[in-house]
Amino acid sequence: MNYTIKQNPIILGIESSCDETAAAVIRGRKLLSSAIISSATEQAKYGGVVPEIASRAHTAAVDEAVKTALKDAGVTLKQIDAVAVTYGAGLLGALLVGLSFAKSLAYTLGVPLIAVNHIRGHLAAAYLSDEDLKPPYITLLASGGHTAILHTKTYTEFEVLGSTLDDAAGEAFDKVARILNLPYPGGPNVQRLAEKGEANIPFPQSLVKNSQSLQFSYSGLKTAVINYCHTAEQKGEKISSENVAASFQCAAIDPLVKKTVECALKVGAKTVTAGGGVAANDYLRLTLKAECDKRKIKLVLPEKKYCTDNAAMIAAEGLIQYEAGNFAPMDINACAQIPLK
Q1: Domain locations in the chain?
Q2: How far, in Å, CA of 70 to CA of 172, rounded?
Q3: How many CB atoms lie within 10 A of CB 290?
Q4: pTM of the model
Q5: CATH classification of 135-306 is 3.30.420.40, yes or no?
Q6: Which one of 69, 283, 328, 331 has the fewest CB atoms closer than 10 angstroms to its CB?
Q7: What's the pLDDT tens digit per position in 238-260?
Q8: Fold type of domain 10-125+310-323
Q9: Do 270 and 297 touch, CB atoms closer than 8 A?
Q10: Are 24 and 94 in contact (CB under 8 A)?
């Protein structure tokens, strides 16, 4: 079906890749509403996300999330010009709930369906904070599934300059949280604990040995934290969880900040952005801002609530794909894993 591309379209975004059921409405780059119904409290009882519980929660909440987003935006379904939805990556059952709902809406309304890569949604969150943001720029992507430095060349094209060889930064935060017996979700709790400690433990930084490399490795850092805690336990020595958290946080984040700014200087980029759940970390935000200010590089950071899973970023990426005419067929399926590009 051929669709007319409108100026400043009203796009409904839907996100259901993990434990957040979310819907949002944008008009052009202007965010009109963002609604989130989370099952995180229920998931915390089990120490992490249980796929079956997440899927059931999405099924119960998706209609309410969409109605809330429409009401808050002051928009009716008949005014929607396109429906953007996460089709991957994520929990397959959870994705199917949102995708099925979006397909039904798009078909009924006779508007385009836009299938959004969840990771590209994280990248597009920066547009919500700066309506004038335009490529080219450098993006630091730091989430539970990906860690990479990207050269965003156009709205739809980017080059991966460096990435993790093993664990992602967010995954490492979650694993360290479990080592320190912190509740789910792990990342924010590690940060809160780190704020009370000192980074005085010499954990290895998350870089590969070649200092010129832009590749990251978190497996060694994670293992170092495990060994430090287990060795102290075997010796009957008491550790400072606060210092462990602070030392880990610095070792995990400092290289990301350093290499991101180096990349910006190397390619001559005047702007740096960040996206993904780890971009909500206060230490990362402060250190990245300090380094960018020092080098007179503009820094665009999404609000913290748009760094974690949300539908506003899905709608923002949906706008990019809408303007490019990249519409999805109604038989598109959900994908648990999708390449970064």
Answers
A1: 10-125+310-323, 135-306
A2: 37
A3: 13
A4: 0.94
A5: yes
A6: 331
A7: 999 999 999 999 999 999 999 99
A8: Nucleotidyltransferase; domain 5 (3.30.420)
A9: yes
A10: no
